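Task 17 of the worksheet. Students: predict the tertiary structure of the chain below and write it out as structure tokens. Keep your answer in the requested format; marks are given for formatting as well as content.
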Amino acid sequence: MIYCGIDWAERTHDVALVDDSGQLLAKRHITDDAAGYRILLDLLAEYGDTEEDPIPVAIETSRGLLVAVLRTGKRRVFAINPMAAARYRDRTSVSRKKSDPGDALVLANVLRTDMHAHRVLPNDSDIARAIAVLARAQQDATWNRQQISNQLRSLLREYYPAALAAFEPWQNGLCRPAAHEVLKIASTPARAARLTRTQLQAALKRAGRKRGIEAEAERLREVFRADWAHQPPLVEDALGKQMLALLVQLEAACTAADSLAEAVEETFPQHPDAEIILSFPGLGIQLGARVLAEIGDDRTRFADARGLKAYAGASPITRASGKKSSITRRWIKNDRLNHAGYLWAFSALTSSPGAKAHYRRRRDNHGDWHASAQRNLFNRMLGQLHHCLQHRALFDENTAYPTQLAASA
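Model answer:
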């Protein structure tokens, strides 16, 4: 049996091959391009790599062109956590020496000694991988939009509270196109106070508003002309320029989030599992795509529902040593799936009577706090989702929560 370890970098990679006894058979330093990939594949073929019996590979990443090349065919690729690889390095060297060829050798020996303790990269379909790219990008764009919106809100609070009061009645006020158009023509409180009804109406029309333009323009005009505290004129103008620069970033973030959301809405329904995922209460297209992006469609990835729950951070973890024992939440988890699960459980409370009854039982009978009760609900729904995906069945409220529904009745 031959094992391969690859220490990857931005421009070059180090490769090491070892046998069952741990003897170093070969090592190479390859470039990150087509020529380097060809050298790697020729090296593997030289030591017995075939299409039916490929050499397993350990690497510290799960993405990139190198991983895509290695995953062709039936090859098993193991993505080793860099922290775990560092602990393996300490097993063979106490001097804390480190080198790229040495790390490649360490990764190869990880497979030689502990292959059973590490997980192969899942064999997801191409459409599942495409959905994962889009869903994660949309999630990142949403987080980025919220971060820039918070920065803009903090800046406006310093010198322009009238803008916050004007946009407060609007849902996601600072992210709306109407707010952007108004701020462009009124970057400071002094300029906002001089705006006419015609200018405000024109700004609302440019933002795409169709109804209630005159009434909304009159409301904005009254807010801007009210009595507010002001910064010194020079400071106010400087803050206004800073606000306009931040507004450009916010508009770009909003456009990116919206365009990626449209791409997810177009791609996700094409997946065979979309119908099952969307049958669950609280899961729409965007949230369902995020769940599918993290769990994939390889049914052999998780041996049972407990593995999926631990991966999502929904199940608790026990720490016991001597006479001390504690049960706490799981901190090492898939953060993206855990965040999607929080939103999923929160939405399910209003769309599923059984989920709401389960949540109330955890709060009233078990004394859970809100977050703990939601995490317990997410843990239960993950088990239901795993069952439905394995058996190709749609969600059924009466089957999922028979006890809670009877109690509610």
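Marker's comment: The CA atoms of residues 302 and 308 lie 6 Å apart. The mean pLDDT is 91.
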